[in-house]
Amino acid sequence: MKCKYSIFIVYSLLFFFTITSCQWWNSKNNDKGSLVAKVYDKELYEGDLQGIAPRGSSSKDSALLVEKYVENWIRKQLLIYEAQAQAVIDEAELNRKLEEYKFALITHEFEKQYVSKNLDTLIPEAEIKQFYDSSKANFELKSNIIKGILVKLPADSPDKDKFFTLVQNYTPTQLKEIQTTASKIGAEVYLSDTIWVNFDEFVQGTPFNKIPNKTDFLRNNIRSEATENDYSYLLIIKSYKIANDIAPLPFVRERIKLMILNKRKTKLVKELEKNILRKAEKDKKVIIHKKKYDKSNS
Q1: For burial by CB atoms within 10 Å, which of 19, 60, 206, 291 has the most?
Q2: Which structural domain, as residue segments, surrounds residue 219?
């Protein structure tokens, strides 16, 4: 640190490598321990550093974490000192903001615990469908989605055509055969013919990702083959939805669940506030002294 700052740092590497020892952490001594750093009249002690390094951390990791904490503490103290010395601060306004921030933290934690304890997380399928049907306009697709199959295998594989046919027309009872054959001939198979997936993500790293107009491609192709870098690819489109279409319910089901839960959380918090106010008024813990104005002053 520069000389103009009155900073005294008394920690060392030896300190960093020994702070995580069981004897140090488990000490029941109420003393804060040795002085670690000092910035003007602010002091940081060993005891202030308890819990900085998670239990089980190596000595090296603990040392780095503590060293970083001390460095940040020094910077903050310097900034606070300079701010108090140079900035024009309205103490009353600052205290008001600190109280508001403290209040926000306390109430947020209280509300979070209350919601965690009282939130009903069970969402019937009927409620999900009702939410979807009443808000379809909010579920417009941002990109193309499909249900499909993608296969990649060496272009010179003698079993290519036979395997492509097997995959294209497979039944659930043939899944084991597909898995065994794919392993034998070095093929990769992605079966997404029963769930909706983002089309761009599905064909990432394949020749189909280079198609200039994917919307037209989806509208005009059910089965497509391509070859690139000694590999052959097969793409089967079972179903598709184009960007700006309304997303099918299965594709947005998890998103709807989150939206329903968030509405329930908001409702719980509002009910909590109302119940607290109602109880306080009933117990006469809330008294509002209305100022009476003389008619002549009105």
Answers
A1: 19
A2: 143-241
